[in-house]
Amino acid sequence: MENFEFVSPTHFVFGRGAEEQVGEKLAAAGAKRVLVHFGGGSAVASGLIDRVGASLDAAGIEHLELGGVRPNPEITLVREGVRLCKEANVDWVLAVGGGSVIDSAKAIANGACVEGDVWELFETKATDHDVLPIAVVLTIPAAGSEASKNTVISNDELGRKTGYANNAQRPKFAFMNPELTFTLPPFQTAAGLTDMFCHLLERFFDDLGAVPVTDNLNLSLMNTIRAEAPRVLADPDNYDARANIMWAGMLCHQGLAGVGRHEDWATHGLEHELSALNPAITHGAGLAVMFPAWMEYVHTENPARFAFYGQAVFGLTPTGDVEADALSAIDETRSFFASLGMPTTLAELDVEETDIPKMLPTLAQNKGIPFGTFKKLTLEDAEAIYKLAL
Fold first, then answer.
1. What is the pLDDT, as a whole number, of residue 220?
2. Domain 11-181 CATH (choose: 3.30.70.270, 1.10.760.10, 3.40.50.1000, 3.40.50.1970)
3. Under DSSP, is residue 207 helix (H, G, I), strand (E, B) or coil?
4. How many CB atoms lie within 10 A of CB 75?
5. CA 20 to 30 Å from 376, out of 36, 240, 297, 338?
6. Mean residue pLDDT across the chain
C-alpha cells in the first residue's frame, strides 16, 4: 500500500425527503445568500427547484437561480455563474442535479474566489485560493461528484474538456433522496451505472498489484452495482435498489476505493476527448466503448490481475490459462455494459476513424505523455486503442 492523504468533509443527509432539510442545514452552517444552480427543465417541472427554494425561504436564506447546465458542462455558463456570485455577494453554491450540474457548481465556487478567468484554474491546476462552500441535492447518481474532489469542464471554443482537482471543492453537504431518481430514463440510469463501475475499474487496475483492504471494498462495490443494475432497470421505482445505487455511486468516486493505490485514469482521458469532440456523447456511453478496448490493449502487462477480477466479479472459473481467463474477463465486462443498453463500438457513437487524429493533440494537452499507470501510454498507443474501439 502506498502512502496517501484522504479528505472527506461531506455531511450526508440520505433518505426520503432529504431535500427538505436544505434550508435548515445551510442556515445552521451560516449561509446567507445562495446561488441555486441546476440543469434543464426536469428539476423545474418536477417542482424540485420550488421545494428547495421554499426550504431556503423558510430558513431565511436569500437565493438566486442559474439554470441551463448541459451534459458535459461548458465554461461559458460557469463564467456567468462566477459573475453572479461576485455581483450578489453569494456565500454558498447549491447544485441541484447530477454530475454535470455539480461539476459546474464546483467551477463557479472556485471562480468566485479568484481574480482572473476561472478557466485559468483548469490550465494551471492551482489550488492556493479560497472556494465558496458547496452543497448538493443529488438527482442523478453516476459521477460521484457529490463528494469528490474533482470537476470536469468543457471549453467549446478551445475544443477542450479537462479536469480540475481540489479537496477544498468537496461539497460540505450532500442531500440524497433516492426517490428523486425514480423518473430517470433507462438510458440515463444505465449510463450512470456504467460510469460508477468504470470509476472502480480506474482504481482497481494500476501498477501496484494487490492492496487487499482497498481491493475488497472496490470489488464489493462492483458486485453491488452488478446485482442492483438489473433490478433497477426492471423496476425503476424500487426504493432499495435506487438507494443502494445512489450510495454506491458516491463511494465509487469519493476516493476511499482508491486509497493506497496509484490509480490509472487513462480511459477517462480517452473518453473525455470523445465528448469534447461531440458534447452529445454521454460520458457513461463513451466509457462503455473505451474501457473494454483499453483492457484488450493493456491486459498483457498483468493478465493475472484481469483473471482475478473476472473470478471475483463475474464468477469465472479459472481454466489454468491466465491469458484466456483475462480475455474472458474483458468479454464479460463488455457484455455487462451491453446488457445495460450501452454501446460497444465508436461507430454507435457516430465516431469514425477519421476523427481519431482530431482528438490526439488535446489528449496530449490534457493528460500529458505518457499517461496512465497500468501501462504507460503514448499517443501511438492511444490511437491504437481508439482503433480497437471502432
1. 97
2. 3.40.50.1970
3. coil
4. 22
5. 338
6. 96
